[in-house]
Amino acid sequence: MARKDTSALEIPRERRIHLRPVAAAAAVLIALLANAHPTAQTVTAIKDGTVLTMTGEAIRRGVVLVRDGKILDVGRDLQIPPEARVIDAGGKYIMPGLIDAMTYFGVRPSDRNDPAKPITPENRIINAYAPFSDFMGGRGARDRRNEIWSGGITTIYVAPGDKQVIGGQGAVVKTGGRPGQEAVLREPASVDMTLGDAPKKVFAAQKKSPSTRMSVAALIRKALIQAQEYDQAQQRQREKPAEGASGQPPRRDPANEALVRLLRREVPARIEANLPDDIRTAIRLAEEFGFEVVVDGGIGAHEIADELAQRKIPVVLAPVSRTYMTEVEGGHTKELFAMVNERNAALLAGAGVRIALASFGYSTGYTGSAYQGRWLLLEAAMAAGFLLPEEEALRAVTVNAAEILGVADRIGSIAKGKDADLVILGGHPLDPKTWVEQVYIDGVLVFERPRSR
Amino acid sequence: MMRRHVSSSNSFRAGGSHWFLGVFLASMMLPAAGWAQSTLAFRGGTVITVTGSPIEGGVVLVRDGKIIAVGKDVSIPADAAIVETGGKFVMPGLVDAMTHFGIRPFGLNSQEQVTPENRAVEAYYPFGGFFKGKGGVEADNELLYGGVTTVYIAPGSTQLIGGQGAVVKTFGASYHGLILRDPASIDMALPPRPPREGTPPGRMAALALLRKTMIDAQEYDRRVREYNQKSDDDKKDAEKPPRDMANEALQRLLHRELPARVEADFVEDISAAMRLAEEFGFNLIVDSGIAAYQLKEVLAQKKIPVVVGKISHPFAPEYFTYPQELHSVADERNAAWLTRAGVKVAIASYASSFGGKATQGRWLLLEAALATAYGMSEEDALKAVTINAAEILGVDGRVGSLEPGKDADLIILDGPPLGLKTWVERVYIDGTLAYQRGGRN
To answer: Which among A108, A114, A133 is the nearest to B267, CB-wise?
Structure first.
């Protein structure tokens, strides 16, 4: 085949001159970009900002040293190695990457639920998690990820369906990563359940059970009893393999395996329950079967704050702002509206309950301005406006969330050895006018606020 | 019908009622094309072995349907019939690693989601006139016309587990002689395609169903093994596990006797397939893989090959190919990027072969040519439709390159294989002339 003569592509001498300024500008640009995207091996020092570590006092004019994607050290008078790349955060705030402890992010609506079946503990959200794919028309994966990063969110919990009684197993993932390296922090991270009106309505509409609260609870009990028996049969077989009726161990069953993890307290149950009686059902189930429980939603949780505190049951609160939506938008019943108290976060924290604030967001990318992630800090600011102490509001979107998700050894605070998931903000994080300027995940810059915005 | 084709004759072209005439004419008019028992020398052309450098003015020596020598200075035995190939190109017959060729369109998919027991060969009828266009000789020539000598035939792609695919030649001495490898794979597809009853709603349920199926197969495998390990005395008392065709097929997967071919385009579906392969320990081949380039490092590291679809696919309308969601992902450089990252790539037609103008086979080489327009080297593009495809199909011991010991499946072209104006002039399969370009084409 004929080949193009490459010499013909060379630029004539007189035209080269005009290209020089362009080339120089390109070189500068490349250098700048290289500077903004350091390789993970070099030491990076973020200096002169106010460091909110989440586990100790705020450090004014502090230094955070980062190497290999981990926090090397944090403090006031740290020696900055001469070869370090220095980021001047003078006048700015540095905090750990935010953690959104309840989202449906990155999952196609059609993949979220298995609405024909009330109980599917075998379903794993990781198999439907598609953070790098375009869907929902309008906006693609990049926009959806920017949406999250624009709010400084570096880790999320992704939940399976919200319309089933037992939807399946959730996952904790970082919002960075690349295809094939999704940065999964914990999977399975939970068994996800829903009490109250949502599943009841779904199955009543199909003229199926469970269409009452009683039958919802009965279904969960039955599934857990079966899982207990399954576990016992497996254990019997392991201890005395020769005995047993048929000489065969019971058939492996992924649904029961998921519930056995719950029974053995390897993962918690995340139970969405808002009204106090639904929360009490969750507590009853957890006590009967001895599993760990995290209450999700918790709009009426403050009414039974002492009961929760006494049992050390954490609550992941749905956004305060969501309760002002209409019934259609928010999906709440009148009964639930009557329960709304903007001080629920403050009341729960005051009683000693560990709380996290979460978006419960779908982040489908069609909500408009692609700044949905920003709402998490705004929610924390609003909670502070309703008397939640500021430190507690910030902990509710960082270290508390990490502890509830079981990943506090890796993320949630700025401390030696933790992952370098950091956010630099233009002002105090709870000031509603503050913008996230830079987001680092594992020491790598993933987001920078565009100047135009 | 079928008996008429396979009886009495030792020569069988996957063609209609003209087969006899075809072979008769071939033997009358082409002295060099006798049936395989003789020695044949292809002399003078540019020999593209695919696994080595091209040989200008090379010789390919064939005896009894096998290649016995390839090179520049091969001495040609006195009794050899000589095919002059001066000024022409000789290369191995093309291998199309993914087709639904020769299967009635409504015979591709079953209603159930999981049917590992189904076998594509049971539906394979390459000489049927069942399409709206032309069947018989036309449908067959469609492939030979493009130089395609080996194809993978897959069961449908709208089920989670469609069944077992097979590797067949496009021409042979008998119907059974066509089959190179059967079963050749377990064919799967993700995500679940919606418009059928019993479709799991969404990816979570689909993967849960696949896991459950694999776990059942593992347990079946264990029960069978435990029974087989018993002494004869113990066997009398024990209950023999009843045979189960579906689980037997999946056992082959678990024992790595067969790979799984998973048609998956989205990153999350390819990732889910990799998770499944890792958990249950089977070999994975990604089919179609429109977003595979986004996973190229991982695929290279795990040595998972990709059988990409047509490079020209992105230009086909949506209803013909894939959902809108994939249009922003599709990139013509997919094959090139994957290859450069170290992933073994085959380019395949994914054709159902409608038998229309009987020219569809030509697209395979054209697709390879298009791949070079999008960054693939000519060498890699040719490998993608020959040796790579053969390796992925597990038949590289027989076909895919011009090397001594391999089947004498070779094609003669009137120009460089990746030239858009190049035509296939002759196709030999097992040393027998299967097709010659006539005035009509």
So the answer is: A133
Instruction: Give residue-wise pLDDT tens across range B77-87.
Output: 999 999 999 99
Element (H, E) at A24: helix A13-36
Which residue type is seen at A127? N
Question: Tokens for B322?
Answer: 């894939």
**Nearest CA-CA partner of A375 in A104, A40, A100, A13:** A100
Report the residue of chain B nearest A110, measured CA to CA: B202
Work out the mean pLDDT of chain B and round it to a whole number: 83
A179 in contact with chain B, both atoms CB, cutoff 8 A: yes
List of chain B residues whose C-beta atoms are within 8 Å of the C-beta of residue A173: none
- What pLDDT does A267 receive? 98
Among chain B residues, the shortest Cα distance to A137 is held by: B325
Cβ-contact A418, A402 below 8 angstroms: no
> Using CA atoms, how far apart are residues A46 and A424, in angstroms rounded to an integer?
9
pLDDT tens across A57-97, in order? 999 999 999 999 999 999 998 999 999 999 999 999 999 99
Using CB atoms, pick whichever of A114, A134, A140 lies closest to residue B204. Answer: A114
Tokens of B321: 């190919």
What 3-state DSSP class applies to A137? Answer: coil
| A9: Cα within 13 Å, side-chain hemisphere | 4
Task: Name which of B215, B271, B329 is nearest A180 (Cβ-Cβ).
Answer: B271
Contact B272 A110 (CB under 8 A): no
How would you classify the pairing of strands A191-194 and A171-174?
A: unpaired
pLDDT at B263 over 90: yes
Q: Which two tokens stand for residue A43?
A: 């030491």
Q: Is-contact A423 A50, C-beta < 8 A? A: no
Torsional class of B166: left (φ above 0), alpha (ψ -120 to 50), beta (otherwise): beta
Looking at the predicted structure, is the pLDDT value of residue B242 above 90?
Answer: yes
Measured at the CA of B177, the angle between CA B134 and CA B175, to 5 degrees, comes to 40
**pTM greater than the 0.90 cutoff:** no
- What's the token pair of residue A45? 């020092």
Longest dimension (CA), chain B: 73
Q: Residues A408, A421: contact at Cβ < 8 Å?
A: no
User: Among residues A338, A293, A335, A299, which one has the least CA distance to residue A319?
Assistant: A299
Neighbours of A264 (CB within 10 A): 11
Q: Which residue of A has its CA nearest to B328?
A: A134
Domain boundaries, chain B: 94-399
DSSP per-residue string spanning B201-244: SSHHHHHHHHHHHHHHHHHHHHHHHHHHHS-HHHHHHSPPPPP-
- Residue A83 in contact with residue A65, Cβ under 8 Å? no
| Domains defined along chain A, listed by start | 38-96+412-453 (2.30.40.10), 98-212+264-408 (3.20.20.140)
Q: What's the CA gap between A386 and A133, in Å, rounded?
A: 38
Tokens found for residue B134: 């032309």
Q: How many CB atoms lie within 10 A of CB B218?
A: 17
Which pLDDT does position A147 carry in this prediction? 79
Arch. (CATH architecture) of B94-399: Alpha-Beta Barrel (3.20)
